Amino acid sequence: MKRLEIFTESKSETQALGKKLAPLFEAGDVVLLKGDLGAGKTTFTGGVAEGLKIEEKVISPTFNIMKCYFKGNLPLYHIDAYRLEEQNIELGLDEYIEGDGVCLIEWPMFIEGLLPDEFLEATLTNEGGDRRKIVFVSNSEHYDALVAALEEGK
Ligand SMILES: Nc1ncnc2c1ncn2[C@@H]1O[C@H](COP(=O)(O)OP(=O)(O)OP(=O)(O)O)[C@@H](O)[C@H]1O
Ligand SMILES: [Mg+2]
Question: How many domains does the chain contain in total?
């Protein structure tokens, strides 16, 4: 397990962090994005998309549950489970989690039963104004290496 705490002072800094992480992802990777409404989860995902050379703008999939982006270096699956709450609807999302791309999941607690054992977790907290605290926690060797690489490239 590795833990890395980073503070960003603007939307673009949070995007840059996602962009920096993007080249480290491989097919099957899963990132759980935790934190309140407006904490910056979609913003971070937009940075990952940019880093994967996806030209399409990442928008909040709140009303779609999931958006797929296939035009980059790696498929990106962006899930926002907020609207599912605790309904446990079977949507076939499991196909995209640990699938052929990287999967970023906002509000993962609402699809608890679909989550794999290994993942990278990022918890975003609004510290007031434009300041955000982003805490990365890994729970396997593979994700430890991602966090270490992010830390080295800091
Ligand atoms: N340091 C920062 N990092 C990220 N976003 C920031 C920062 N400072 C201000 N913001 C603003 O906070 C908002 C973050 O919105 P975003 O949609 O990314 O949040 P979210 O965590 O995905 O929320 P939701 O749970 O509603 O989907 C944006 O309006 C953005 O401009
Ligand atoms: Mg969002």
Answer: 1
Residue 133, domain extent: 2-152
| CATH number reported for the structural domain that contains residue 51 in this entry | 3.40.50.300
Instruction: Identify which of 11, 64, 132 to mutate to test ligand 1's pocket (most ligand atoms within 8 A of the CB).
Output: 11
Q: 129 in helix, strand or coil?
A: coil
Residue with tokens 């990287």: 102
Single-letter code of the amino acid located at 103: C
Predicted confidence (pLDDT) per residue in 30-78, tens digit? 999 999 999 999 999 999 999 999 999 998 866 778 999 999 999 999 9
Residue 136 β-bridge partners:
4, 122
Distance CA 151, CA 2 (A): 10
Please report the atom of ligand 1 found closest to the CA of residue 80. 27
